[in-house]
Design goal:
This protein has 265 residues and is mostly beta strands. It has one helix and 25 strands. It comes from Lutibacter holmesii.
Length: 265
């Protein structure tokens, strides 16, 4: 697969760059909206969390399924797989990952950040990430194909660029959240629950509205003032008590589709 894919809106006011399926740039009217890899904060610019969200350390890295117990590290094994390109046009691209049930995958967090060397999952799945850059927005669609009844959690983890002055706010419904408030959330992130829409409001530059289908919740996370992760999630995992209880999991319908639309304004 070509490491870099560059898409352009039909009116040429926006472009998107993807590196091995990772969203590394979204330029709108020459303004960069995505956190740049190598800058302080986070070493990535986006990733997907599947089939779990959050840490499994509290459960000794074990996740219980109807087919038994399997090792999973933080945010699941999907990130350990490589994307291939299914098709591409000027303003669209479809990436795909496939996993064969029970395949042991090397955990990239081992040994520096995790004692678990291999992770696995007892279900086949195909995971598609479709990118469509329109004149007004960036649409990202996730399609998960697997057997009916598979438990799963899904989260999308993009990082957006901030100006470093901590004067941006996040709004959702009647809630207004500052960057310092989000930072106090630490590694468990700041939950914004039971909503499908959220906005990043800036003093300078383009604001962002994020609308979703299928997720219904968000987490906000940043270790720095120059970036912010606004993460659509199916469930907030840091609920106290037993981690990753079965109530946090969706149950597959065979094919499940989730959407994220990012609109600069």
């Amino acid at each position: 697969m070509n490491n870099l894919v560059v898409l352009h809106s039909l009116d040429n006011t926006a472009s998107v760059t993807l590196e091995k399926g990772e969203l590394v740039s979204y330029l709108k009217n020459n303004e960069e909206l995505i956190h740049q890899k190598g800058n302080p904060g986070w070493r990535n610019s986006d990733t997907e969390m599947f089939p779990i969200i959050g840490p499994s350390k509290e459960n000794k890295f074990i996740v219980t399924t109807p087919k038994g117990n399997y090792n999973q590290d933080q945010h699941g094994l999907l990130r350990e797989l490589d994307y291939s390109i299914e098709n591409q046009t000027k303003n669209t691209c479809v990436f795909k990952k496939k996993y064969a049930a029970y395949t042991a995958i090397e955990n990239s967090k081992f040994p520096e950040k995790s004692p678990i060397k291999l992770v696995s999952w007892p279900y086949n799945f195909t995971f598609k990430k479709s990118i469509a850059l329109t004149n007004s927005s960036l649409k990202i669609t996730f399609e998960i194909s697997t057997e009916k009844g598979m438990p799963f959690m899904l989260g999308y983890h993009p990082a957006f660029m901030l100006n470093g002055n901590s004067n941006e706010v996040v709004t959702s419904n009647s809630q207004e959240i500052s960057i310092p408030e989000i930072q106090k959330g630490g590694d468990t992130a700041f939950p914004v629950l039971n909503t499908s829409e959220i906005s990043l409001v800036k003093k300078n530059g383009l604001n962002l509205k994020i609308q979703t289908k299928g997720f219904h919740n968000f987490m906000l996370w940043t270790p720095a003032t120059n970036m912010l992760c606004i993460e659509p999630i199916t469930a907030y995992p840091y609920t106290g008590g037993k981690m990753l209880s079965k109530e946090l999991f969706n149950i597959s319908n065979g094919v499940d589709v989730f959407e994220v639309e990012i609109t600069p304004y």
